[in-house]
């Protein structure tokens, strides 16, 4: 999927990078600040390699950062990641570019803070001596419709979901594509949407879901079930409060005792049961 994401976003689907040419890179690194050692970790990092005369040569270092929310200081984070990758090349014979892609899955536009100058106010007198540093942010939910076909892995399903769900909450794929790696896709969706129902949908009648239509049906069903359960619990709670309120009103139970039984302060109890008393 990694190669497909890079090819889709950078080369409009042209198969420039092959999956077999990628090897894992160390995503974590250390830096010192405020006299302490801190760890920074990319989401995913790969080396792009090419065989030349029997020797494996590194062509580039590629990193992906997934964002579900706008990152005001994202340029500073990317500079830290990229600087560490370049620093490591001091110990290598071959030097190569470092490219970081920020995948933003929010519905709102990223809009600003796409470079160092957007984050830091650099006085005009210093600008000739301070290099601006631009970052590559891809707003997945705002990709054009035709961009969906740039992808050929399961990431196409993810892009299709975010592009259409942004404008149509009741979205259902017209031509559902079968998953190749359903566990990975649904775990990704759960992380990006902060909704664990996507992981829960892996279990159900008929085994794992085969496409996004089945996933969305299961997610919706679980949402309805949770809503019904919350409604039932809320109804029971209100019923108990009404009984306690009637006991207080009839002088059978002191207000303090009724509030204690409801796990409320006397003031909160009176506030929540005011409508019951008014009805009487």
The largest sheet has its strands arranged as: 1-4-5-6-7
What's the mean pLDDT score? 83
The percent of residues in helical segments reads 40-55%
Biggest sheet, in brief?
5 strands, mixed
- The stretches of 5 or more residues where confidence is low (pLDDT under 50) are 223-233
Shape: extended
Strand/helix succession: HEEEEEHEHEHHHHHH
**Strand segment count:** 7
Q: With helices defined by DSSP (H or I, 4 residues minimum), what is the helix count?
A: 9
Radius of gyration: 27 Å
Given the helix and strand composition, which structural class is it?
alpha/beta
Strand content: 15-25%
Our measurement of the CA-to-CA distance between the termini, rounded to an integer number of angstroms, reads: 64 Å
How would you describe this structure to a colleague?
With about 280 residues, the chain is α/β, with parallel strands linked by helices. Among the domains are: about 1-140, no CATH class; about 240-280, no CATH class. About 40% of the residues lie in helices and about 15% in strands. The chain has helices at about 1-10, 75-90, 115-120, 155-165, 180-195, 195-200, 210-250, 255-260, 265-280, and strands at about 20-25, 30-35, 35-40, 45-50, 55-65, 100-105, 135-140. It has a 5-stranded mixed β-sheet, sandwiched between helices. It has a two-stranded antiparallel ribbon with strand order 2-3. Helix 7 (about 210-250) packs across helix 9 (about 265-280) and helix 8 (about 255-260) crosses helix 9 (about 265-280).
């Amino acid at each position: 999927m990694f190669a497909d994401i890079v090819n889709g976003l950078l080369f409009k689907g042209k198969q420039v990078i092959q999956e077999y040419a990628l090897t894992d890179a160390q995503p974590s690194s250390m830096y010192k600040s405020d006299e302490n050692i801190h760890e920074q970790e990319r989401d995913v990092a790969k080396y792009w390699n090419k065989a030349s005369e029997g020797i494996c040569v590194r062509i580039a270092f590629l990193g992906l950062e997934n964002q579900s929310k706008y990152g005001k200081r994202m340029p500073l984070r990317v500079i830290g990641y990229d600087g560490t990758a370049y620093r490591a090349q001091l110990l290598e014979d071959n030097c190569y570019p470092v490219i970081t892609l920020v995948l933003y899955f929010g519905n709102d536009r990223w809009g600003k803070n796409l470079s160092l100058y957007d984050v830091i106010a650099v006085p005009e007198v210093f600008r000739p001596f301070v290099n601006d540093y631009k970052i590559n942010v891809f707003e997945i939910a705002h990709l054009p419709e035709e961009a969906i076909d740039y992808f050929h892995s399961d990431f196409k399903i993810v892009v299709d979901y975010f592009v259409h769900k942004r404008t149509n909450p009741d979205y259902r794929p017209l031509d559902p594509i079968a998953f190749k790696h359903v566990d990975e896709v649904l775990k990704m969706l759960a992380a990006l949407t902060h909704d664990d129902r996507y992981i829960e949908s892996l279990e159900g009648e008929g085994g794992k879901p085969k496409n996004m239509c089945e996933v969305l049906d299961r997610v919706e069903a679980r949402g309805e079930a949770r809503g019904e359960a919350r409604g039932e619990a809320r109804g029971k709670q209100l019923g108990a409060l009404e009984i306690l309120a009637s006991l207080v009103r009839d002088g059978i139970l002191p207000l303090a005792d009724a509030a204690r039984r409801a796990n409320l302060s006397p003031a909160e109890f009176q506030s929540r049961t005011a409508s019951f008393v008014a009805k009487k």
